[in-house]
Description:
- This protein has helices spanning 10-21, 53-60, 74-83, 98-109, 124-134, 164-181, 273-287, 295-314, and strands at residues 2-6, 26-31, 48-50, 64-67, 87-91, 114-117, 141-149, 185-193, 205-212, 216-223, 236-241, 245-249, 252-257, 260-264, 318-319.
- It is an alpha/beta fold.
- The protein has 2 domains: 2-112, Rossmann fold (3-Layer(aba) Sandwich); 121-267 and 305-319, Dihydrodipicolinate Reductase, domain 2 (2-Layer Sandwich), CATH 3.30.360.
- It binds nicotinamide-adenine-dinucleotide.
- Nicotinamide-adenine-dinucleotide (NAD) is lined by residues 6-12, 31-34, 37, 53, 68-71, 73, 76-77, 91-92, 119, 156-157, 168.
Amino acid sequence: MRALLTGLGEWGVLWYRELSRRTDIVLAGASDKNEKTWDKIQDKGNCKFFTDAASAMDELKPDFVLNAAPPDAHRIINDLAFDRGISVLSEKPIAVNWDDVLHIVSRANAGQKLMIAENYRYSSRCRTIKEILSQNKPGNLTSIKIDFNRRHFMENYHKEMLNPILLDVGIHHLDMLRYFTGCEFKNIYTDFYTPAESWYKGFSNAVMCITMENDIKVLYNGRLDAHSNETDWYANWTFTGVNGILRYQNDSLYFDTGGQTEQITLPEDKNTSFNVILDEFTAYILRGTLPQTHISDNIKTQSIAQAAVNSFEKGKVIYVD
Ligand SMILES: NC(=O)c1ccc[n+]([C@@H]2O[C@H](COP(=O)([O-])OP(=O)(O)OC[C@H]3O[C@@H](n4cnc5c(N)ncnc54)[C@H](O)[C@@H]3O)[C@@H](O)[C@H]2O)c1
């Protein structure tokens, strides 16, 4: 299967490495508007480099485009691919602007193949936690607390984003909530802010109160401009159930019940999410098996992010259909 990678920024370079490693994929080309980014690739192999994504598609006729351009360029790259009948594996979020989201979804609904690389849920960490939750160790969940705390300096498109805490990172955590619980959202109330000590232009902090199906109550507290006490990118999670509490905290997992704490050994966190995504995506292209984060599923995650924005703008609880 022949691939074209668009965007050779911080994340695109990682995709370049992962696509090059696959034996079932030929990385035929890479395109970035900025020629200087090509210098970041040491082993260029047989990959052809372009500044213009449309010319790259016309010349290489790839089976799929891996869209690792900034979020506000996702629509234009997807359209170029869809106009040529080329399938797309796109980075998250679907888009920044809701009109762009709806446009991209309508193209997919009209028959174009699109998966969103919402990678956190595909990590070995998240898959292990999901497995333990599925074994019902804490019992039926009643509440979930998520604490995300990073000291993150953004150098690229993030700098100009209006809501980086939500659309750049929080969207992964919202997606993880759906993945871990198997439940959808019922309502959401949010606040976004940028504290005086922040170096961010856009919102760097989020507080979200959510009710999910089965009446699971969720409290999310996230920040990107922490003084210290950083969590990992997955965030710290406290799952409270009728039998006890499952806690994921800085790469360790604990189960608390009846005043006792048991540590659960987590397997080494191998960086496998790229491969699992590519496995699901290639199965979709070759055999039509819908991937977990097919656009028809990922739109539910993005819709929650949009409901979070609506809640903030209107200052009220938003009920999700
Ligand atoms: N899943 C994750 O954990 C994760 C982490 C980082 C980034 N991402 C996602 O990856 C995407 C890229 O992020 P990044 O950090 O690499 O951004 P970046 O700004 O570092 O790189 C984007 C690159 O795309 C290029 N570009 C812009 N418009 C283009 C176009 N029309 N055609 C071709 N190239 C174009 C830019 O020149 C730049 O080199 C974003 O959607 C982001 O949300 C995901």
